[in-house]
């Protein structure tokens, strides 16, 4: 990240916004403004907009951009936000960040505007009513007593992980019931590795693989969950905050995984595998079970189900629960936390722009027309309800817009702010069948970070290196490169290299901001 800019950032108050509202609003023009209609004499306000962080590239003057400009009487300059662009001083007026650590890093550089929670409540009343029920979300981006972002939330997460089995493999090896316990899981993955489930007469199958060094944690989330821990996650144990990486239960899980690897049950490529690569191995008869996002596999039109049909049309898939073990069951879960909306610090000098941004934010959170246009496009052209004639429920993209790049080309997603929508909107536009599947298979809210992944003061000094240290030791222990007893060596090294300091900070933050 670039060095701190050290510019003073002033708090924005509701009074400042009120002053901006008074400028040029009277009579007919005031009525138009209250009705959301631009005054003919009002010059469009220029807004630099950081496009959705998952979008690959800027599209200028897109259909959605022009629609937004007309509706809100603004002139938008879309930009792609990167660390390099921020370092060069190109800070958008409005953009989105994915994690509290991103907010913390940019706040430390002095490029963000600090906000007033009371102002958020005043300017976005519909959304605030929903998000305040999880008030701890504001604490994830509160540093030194000041709020630096508007948190998004998500109740039912289709990206929560559960087990996806090759049902045809279970049938082939004579397992009639989907595994639910860790013992049943073990029996199935051994059968996949030993009993030729693809019927080709070769010893070329494994039970499972992982993502040991390619993610934010150490992979094998459901197996660690069966022992009651999630490596790298802060967990509350007996009133104290501890890190799942160094708990005794993590050593127990490693012992189990180490045995599976030694017996040829775990794919030896687990160290370098990713979610994309292990999906392909499931499709191509190399492994028999993966951890998959519920939204990709619960319904017939789920991405993984569709991809399997394209590669291996005779295969059968079945969604199952995370295996229950001595510590319960569960997998990595991001909790209710979603992404964050932030404002550039220069907006503080322009009350009219600040007021306009909050007008847009309110619409992005509670106005169906705005939400639909920015996230799906035009009904009947780019999207429609999945059921013919329906006025609510699941939606689908129409031919010519099924792919994300097709939608990005017309500006759909670029100006969407994702999970900043109200619950009433989500209830109307969500798929009841998918919601039921998430409720059935998700391990939320039991499995998430006790601090909701808030950034600790010393994360920048230690977190990246400690995660890499955890991944290295765990991969070496599972693969048998080093003895299981080296786990104790790892714990000592983890603590000495910043873990103790982070643990103290985590407990301090928990007591001050998160303990109920």
UniProtKB/TrEMBL annotation:
Coiled coil residues, start to end: none
InterPro entries: Bact_solute-bd_prot1
Native source organism of the sequence: Paenibacillus aurantius
Name of the protein described by the UniProt record: Extracellular solute-binding protein
Signal peptide interval: 1-18
Xref: SUPFAM superfamilies: Periplasmic binding protein-like II (SSF53850)
Keyword Signal: yes
Keywords linked to the UniProt accession: Signal
Keyword Signal attributed: yes
PANTHER family per the UniProt record, alphabetical: ARABINOSE-BINDING PROTEIN-RELATED, POLYGALACTURONAN_RHAMNOGALACTURONAN-BINDING PROTEIN YTCQ
């Amino acid at each position: 990240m670039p060095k701190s800019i050290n510019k003073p950032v002033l708090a924005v108050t509701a009074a400042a916004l009120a002053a901006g509202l008074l400028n040029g609003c009277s009579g007919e023009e005031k009525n138009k403004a209250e009705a959301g209609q631009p005054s003919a004499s009002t010059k469009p306000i220029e807004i630099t907009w950081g496009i959705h962080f998952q979008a690959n590239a800027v599209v200028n003057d897109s259909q959605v951009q022009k629609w937004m400009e007309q509706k809100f009487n603004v002139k938008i300059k879309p930009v792609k936000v990167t660390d390099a662009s921020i370092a060069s001083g190109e800070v958008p007026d409005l953009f989105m960040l994915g994690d509290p650590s991103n907010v913390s890093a940019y706040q430390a550089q002095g490029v963000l505007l600090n906000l007033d929670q009371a102002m958020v409540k005043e300017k976005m009343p519909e959304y605030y009513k929903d998000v305040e029920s999880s008030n701890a979300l504001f604490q994830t981006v509160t540093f030194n007593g000041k709020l630096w972002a508007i948190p998004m939330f998500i109740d039912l997460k289709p990206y929560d992980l559960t087990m996806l089995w090759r049902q045809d493999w279970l049938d082939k090896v004579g397992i009639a019931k989907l595994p639910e316990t860790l013992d049943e899981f073990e029996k199935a993955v051994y059968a996949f590795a030993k009993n030729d489930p693809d019927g080709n007469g070769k010893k070329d199958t494994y039970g499972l693989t992982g993502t040991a060094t390619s993610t934010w944690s150490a992979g094998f989330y459901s197996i660690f969950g069966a022992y009651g821990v999630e490596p790298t996650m802060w967990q509350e144990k007996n009133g104290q905050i501890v890190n799942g990486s160094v708990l005794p239960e993590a050593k127990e899980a490693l012992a189990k995984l180490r045995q599976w690897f030694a017996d040829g049950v775990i794919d030896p490529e687990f160290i370098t595998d990713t979610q994309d690569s292990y999906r392909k191995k499931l499709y191509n008869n190399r492994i028999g079970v993966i951890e998959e996002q519920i939204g990709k596999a619960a319904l017939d039109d789920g991405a993984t189900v569709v991809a399997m049909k394209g590669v291996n049309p005779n295969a059968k898939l079945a969604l199952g629960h995370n295996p229950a073990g001595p510590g319960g069951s569960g997998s990595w879960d991001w909790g209710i936390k979603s992404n964050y909306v932030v404002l550039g610090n220069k907006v503080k000098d322009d009350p009219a722009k600040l007021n306009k941004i909050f007008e847009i934010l309110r619409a992005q959170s509670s106005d169906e027309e705005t939400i639909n246009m920015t996230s799906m496009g035009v009904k009947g052209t780019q999207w429609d309800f999945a059921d013919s004639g329906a006025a609510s429920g699941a939606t689908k993209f129409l031919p010519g817009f099924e792919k994300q790049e097709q939608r990005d080309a017309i500006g759909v997603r670029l100006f969407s702010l994702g999970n900043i929508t109200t619950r009433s909107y989500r209830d109307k536009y969500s798929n009841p069948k998918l919601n039921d599947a998430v409720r059935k298979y998700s391990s939320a809210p039991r499995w998430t970070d006790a601090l909701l992944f808030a950034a600790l003061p010393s994360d920048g000094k230690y977190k990246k290196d400690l995660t890499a240290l955890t991944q290295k030791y765990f991969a070496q222990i599972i693969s048998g490169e080093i003895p299981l007893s080296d786990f104790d060596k790892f714990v000592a090294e983890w603590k000495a290299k910043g873990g103790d300091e982070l643990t103290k900070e985590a407990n301090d933050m928990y007591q001050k901001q998160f303990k109920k």
